[in-house]
Specification:
- Helix content is about 75%, strand content about 5%.
- It is elongated, with a radius of gyration of 23 Å.
């Protein structure tokens, strides 16, 4: 990652044409850091390397690096803590206000809307992850899949929050493996809402303990399709996994409605 090489090319191009103004080195560093944030190499809340190490990594002078970071800060992409370093801003993914999160989390219809949303984004992510994923991506997806099993062993009775968050991290790893920045950042912005949705779904599904082994099986099929590099199979596995959950939830909702009507008649 040599910002000087890029700057030299830009300067040579300007000398040949006589029209293009040479791009400042700080702006080139800025563009590279922005790309790292967009693609997820630098995540919200992550601490940047110390200035000296970062300058060595980019092979640039510290003043140029410092100017680039100042521009990042002016854009609200990073924050500095006195004596604590520079961090990628936490609020990058505040796509929804807290009141809207709460409203959607407590609305039954929104829960099914979120499942439909997951059909689209998780299906696309699975397809492209199987197509474009690297061995390192697959290793990360496998690790996140294993963490779901660990969370199931560690959870308390009727406590599905940890498992829900592990499931979200599994799907975020798939989104990262898709190498589509829009899919990844949209999924990240929705992750708190999706974790709430999954936790509520698991609470309902807990009334049918036999269901969990089937969901685990569907998830393993999805994992295997992605790691084996079969895009169409991965898309289908994602769809069948969510369709199964949706079907069970719809049946449960209908059963609850019948019980409520019976209670009213009594």
């Amino acid at each position: 990652m040599n910002a000087n090489v890029t700057a030299n090319k830009s300067m040579k191009a300007s000398q040949r044409t006589g029209r293009v103004k040479p791009q400042k080195l700080a702006d080139i560093i800025l563009a590279q850091l922005e790309s790292m944030i967009i693609e997820g190499s630098l995540q919200p809340g992550e601490k940047l390397l110390p200035e000296r190490e970062l300058a060595l990594q980019f092979e640039v002078s510290r003043p140029s690096l410092r100017e680039a970071i100042q521009k990042l800060e002016a854009k609200g992409l990073v924050t500095r803590k006195q004596g604590g370093g520079t961090f990628v801003s936490d609020n990058l993914l505040s796509g929804f206000s807290d009141p809207l999160f709460e409203l959607m989390s407590n609305n039954n219809e929104s829960q099914f809307d979120l499942l439909e949303f997951r059909h689209g984004i998780e299906g696309m992510a699975s397809y492209y992850a199987a197509m474009r994923g690297t061995p390192a991506d697959f290793e990360q997806i496998q690790a996140k899949h294993n963490e779901i099993g660990n969370s199931q062993l560690e959870k308390g009775e009727d406590d599905f929050r940890g498992e829900a968050e592990a499931v979200v991290q599994f799907h975020l790893a798939i989104c990262a493996a898709s190498h589509n920045a829009v899919i990844l950042q949209l999924a990240r912005s929705m992750s708190p809402l999706l974790a709430d949705n999954i936790a509520q779904n698991l609470t309902v599904l807990a009334k049918r303990p036999d269901i969990f082994s089937k969901i685990t099986d569907y998830r393993k099929r999805l994992l295997n399709a992605i790691i084996s590099g079969e895009p169409q199979k991965a898309w289908g596995a994602s769809h069948r996994h969510l369709a199964f959950i949706e079907e069970i939830l719809l049946k449960s909702t209908q059963e609850n409605s019948r019980m409520e009507r019976s209670m009213r008649r009594m």
